[in-house]
């Protein structure tokens, strides 16, 4: 239990309007506790029941409110913020329906393990029994996405409740904490701000666990180290790379990391494929699977006649550390045991040629990675092959990836919801200057633009690149408005193929009834490769079905949507246009959007 | 339990692709049962786990899939459809996150009592335990908005489950039924379509209840008949008007009716005010309150120091009929007892003068109401007073209401989410030709455009007018795209005051700490009049708070948003521009949008 602060005059009381004499209400106590705990951003979409919280913002200058026009933007932005900042932002949501609108991106945040605090306004305690129109079961809605849910009962409790929420969100490995704040608890006097909660450090992995995993690695069986969570930051990657170099174990990372550090100078690690058939091929022959922050691989969707688990039947699974453990330390300890002299294998700096530039890598000195990359190429991920593409050629997702790889700035944060159009991105950007890659952790589309928004708030000095599928963009398109209001340096590329492309592919397979397995895309939700093989849906898919997966009739003009929300926008039809527009957008501060017209990946 | 149909070749088998021999899977059984039960529209936003349902659409020509780009549009459209059609549409939603995105408008549909069937795709039964990324607790999310939730366990059960869902949705008074359909249950053979369920007619109200209410009316106490639900259709309104004429009882209707028939020739009934202070004034002195399809009035939000119930302490409350009862019959029986010779008081045809047209009512013969209105004016609602406004004058919400009243076509369906800007609409449209008025039943904003979309699908021969606040529009703006694709005759007016205007008002009151009660607006959610009087939030609201309620910086260009989604759009700054644009939009088929630039109501 955190100790309570006195509720006397605060630091900075000069801007409180009334000095000293103003009583501290529940909202004040909440805000003071949050800011004392390092929570300084609140992505907000308030309503009447949150007005006292809103009014209290001007008495707590340590908290910055960021208005979002839809709650899914607020929760997704808080997710992006938490992934990059490493500590939570708050959201402010209006009753059950406001929380409901934010749930899909809270689902993604839960899967990401992002520290995040929801403040959900609620009817006054005595008002609930009257079942007013907005009355709903907030607790039931909150629980599926929250590791911690509490309903503040009294103004005097709010400070301590907020401190507990912070602890629940921040305590490794972090998570979603939801505090339900009744209006009368917010407006009534008697609030008692609490100090920041004490946090336990991440738990060390017991030495005997590390030793037993070391024994597994020494056996010489075909061994795979599957990395996830905090293992995907530089320290973890370097230790894992030493282990691989010293033992011959292979490395893969989980399919949808919350945050992956990658690029020139960092160890390159391939991704476990999204499509079950490809993942099964990657895992084939593995006899020892060591999980380091990742979960045992399962198929994203069920496939008729195929197993849900992707672990080979004769493979043993070992867990080096649980998500809340000190993963980098465990990997380092393991490396010291099994590969004391090994060095990490670093990705060399290598960009695709900018299409049309005669094979010359793009970019000036600003693109030289800060880290000095090692000389030896890392296996399998680097490069790109669009050098032969003419600049006046029609843009494709593959060409666009090459352009992005050629121009990606040092220190970029990439929010990736490109889905099928993103197939070539990992290879094309592998040797770009160091950057962070944020992926769609929970499969609930509509994450990309909000996460980019929150990441840009967390890291105002870093360029943010949102790589976004057109269908997914439409769920939370108003994130663009928040980017414009806040002047965030986000460049959004909409891959406009005018289809739910992966579903079209899946539907064809369902309809064909063919026995062929996965198609080529390696992507997010709605990218499920439910191989229709043998399923009774079989033949018969026709225009009615296809029309539900088609985003044309009418074509969406994303440049108009962006302009309508204050974001400068352009459309690229050729590779040269895309390169020119991307270079310009990256060079200028503030938000930009490029609608990249590309054919669907087939 | 419905009897099962045989699963042999179907009517219309010619377009099935494979005749006779194709096995019936769960998805087929579901679709056949729904269409056999009169469900012919499915507002859809599918994902991989719904692909077999999608593929089955081409084998069931009786079901029309309507693509929505966001689930909140699908559920809101199904609500609008159900309100106008009187029978359910289906939705198709993708797993827990898809349902989550649709919850806010399902909350509104639940409050409206709309018949509606959600089909929520789910992971294969055997796949759930693997906790794949999209796994979530669908049941917990569904229950708060659903009167009926079931999870189909086997393909053979799906038909019967669907019939039960139809029964749950349609059985008076109707409601939201959610059927969770695991992917393997959908794709596996063995589906058994069911026939339409038998529905009980609405229950008659027992004669002794009618007699006891008649006794109340005969007492001569100040008496108010509060109408809601099915009492707000023509038959119920006419019977209620007879009762009022014969007994002196007053009439009011519930604040947010799901569907209200009104206009020239129909009895005019005033609305119970949204703001508690105004409602309390309307109810002051009432000694007998008779509920006919409405609930006992409660404050929309809690107000510090004010009661939640709006029923005067010395008032007795009587319930004529429950929502599932045959309300029009009960009102008619009651009228026969207490006012056998009374006639309903009908609203005369009367429109505001079109501003600038020298007092001449607008419109040609097409605007003459089909019904012959009585001569005597109904109390209190008719008229409008913008005749003195010059046409070049800057548009205001009040002028806009006069223009709408002058031009509203006969048979229009109005989806009202105008919030503060809608203050003058009821009076300005009261004497317009007969029309239906659909309001924000549950307070979850973002309803208006989807409900208009669904109403237009239900009633393709009637003009639909969506009157929409700018802030609310942004939650579900992609409804415009569905309107464009389907060629729906919806005219959307965005009241662009560039603020969450009601919240600004509330914040000022909170901040002032003044004891004054309600402000003037009578509106939807976020219009709560939480009188800050005495609340400790008090002084201190400043720029941080106000910025969260301000929709400028940047201004949203709704004409660009509409054009970007294929809807022709224009902007009106003067009253003449608005009148010209509205007349043109109403005259042309297909969707249109007018951005009406208006100052906030103060």
Question: How would you describe this protein?
Answer:
2 copies of one chain form a homodimer. With 602 residues, chain A is of the alpha/beta class. In chain A, 33% of the residues lie in helices and 15% in strands. Chain A contains 20 helices and 18 strands. In chain A, the strands form 3 sheets. The first copy, chain A, has a 7-stranded mixed sheet, with helices on both faces. In chain A, helix 3 (71-85) packs parallel to helix 4, helix 3 crosses helix 14 and helix 8 (207-218) crosses helix 11. The interface between A and B is large, with 124 and 123 residues.
Compact summary:
Chain A is 33% helix and 15% strand.
Task: Produce the secondary structure layout.
The structure is a homodimer of 602-residue chains.
Chain A: H1 26-36, E1 41-44, H2 51-56, E2 64-67, H3 71-85, E3 89-94, H4 95-112, E4 116-122, H5 138-142, E5 148-151, H6 155-170, E6 176-182, H7 183-187, H8 207-218, E7 223-227, H9 234-247, E8 250-253, E9 260-262, E10 270-271, H10 276-283, E11 288-292, E12 316-321, H11 327-338, H12 397-407, E13 413-417, H13 425-429, E14 435-439, H14 448-458, E15 464-469, H15 470-473, H16 479-486, E16 490-496, H17 501-512, H18 543-547, H19 558-564, E17 569-572, H20 575-587, E18 592-597
Parallel strand pairs in A: 1-2, 1-3, 3-4, 4-6, 5-6, 7-8, 7-11, 8-10, 11-12, 13-14, 13-15, 15-16, 16-18, 17-18
Antiparallel strand pairs in A: 9-14
Helix pairs in contact in A: 1-6, 3-4, 3-14, 8-11, 9-11, 12-20, 14-16
